[in-house]
Structures are given as C-alpha cells and as structure tokens.
Amino acid sequence: MAPQKVGVGLATNFATIKGQQPLVAGLTEMDLGMRSFVPQMREALGPGYTVVSADVGAHSQEIPIAIRTGPLTRVLASEVVQISPNIGAKGIGNDRYLAQVTFQHRNRTYVVMHTHTNAVIQSHMTLKMLQNPRVKATAAAMQTIENRATTVLANPDVTALWIMGDFNYLPVDDPLIEWKHSPPAMFGRLAMTWTNSRVIYLAWSKGVRRRGDIQVIPAHTAHNASDHGWLVGGFRRVLTHP
Known about the structure:
242 residues; 4 helices; globular
C-alpha cells in the first residue's frame, strides 16, 4: 500500500515499488481531477505489471492497483465503482471510488480492494467524529465496501481478500466513541486482521497469514516522497487439509 500525493516524487516512488517487486501495489491520489498519472505508472513499472484503473468519474483514476503478472499470475476481473459523490470543497469532499481486482496466483483466486475515502470526518484532537455531510457520505461508502467484502468472503472459490487504502480515520481505544463505520470496526465484523500507519490501513482475511512483520516506509524519505507512510507486507497462503 503506497499512498501517493498527486504527482509528488513519482520517480522516487515508482523506483521503490519496482525495487520491492511486490505482487500487488496500490497507490492513492494519483490524479488531480484533470490529469491521470496512471500512464506514467504503467511506463515506470514496465510490462511485468498490469495496472488496473478506470476513467469512470472525475477522481476515479486516483486509486490504481498494480499486479505483477506473468506465468504464475493473471488478472481475472476488475472494476472501479463510485462509493460517494461530490460533497463540499474540492479535494476534501470530491467523489470517491473503490477499485476491486480479482486475480489468480499459483492457481488460487484472490481479491484485493483499494480505496481512498473522504477526509475531514474526524477530530484529530478528540478522535470523535465530526458532524458534516462527508461523514454521512463516508458511512454509506464504508457500508458499500463492507457489503462487497462480505460477498467476496462468502465465495468458496476465493482463497483470501485484502482491503487497503487511505481511510482518513485514526483508530481509537475508547469503544464509546468508536465509529460504527470505522475501518477497525469493519475489519472486526469481517473477521479480518489489520494494521495501520495513521490513516493508512492494510487488512487481510483468514486465507493468508503474515510472513514477517509489516514494514512501514516513512514519509518524506529517500524511498518515499509522499506525505504518508507506506505499508509493505509479505503473506503466504494458509494451508488447508481435506
């Protein structure tokens, strides 16, 4: 999970991704509403990656997913769907989307979901939810994500699901102020394990287990020119017995 910042440090960030050679990489804020950086991403990563994106709305190309394809891996299906409309100021309440990719790796089927939900929905001081139209829109967006994830997890042909993205929500320890639609609450209902770097989250289902620790590549460093830390994790399939 590699949060971007609308064209800042693209060469550095693409070089880091190419050097890491992840099976899956997701970036956010990959457009300005007028220009998509997806073509540069495809060129930088090269033919070894299939970059999934769709131009279906003003900011729909800001959350591309790159899959390292080859003899063992292929993309089976993909879609980008709008999960909330334009609300409020541009850049804060703009239209938001979910990218969903189904791919096959070593003859197993996996799904990855990637998103970037509305900002300025939570007080960074009290961690309580704010009262504004973006909160209501984000609640509906989170419910859409949860509904889709529930359907994926119920599919016996899917080995595992990952959900990742910039959710613009800081976790809280107090259950009295925990938002019903927060990423941690959603992941709990889905029985998924998760980790975060502030508002950036990576969650995975029971079909895979973590291989080693989740690495955080800090923001504004030689390997990450963005304004958010990146999350890098290795996973292996959980072996099942007949």
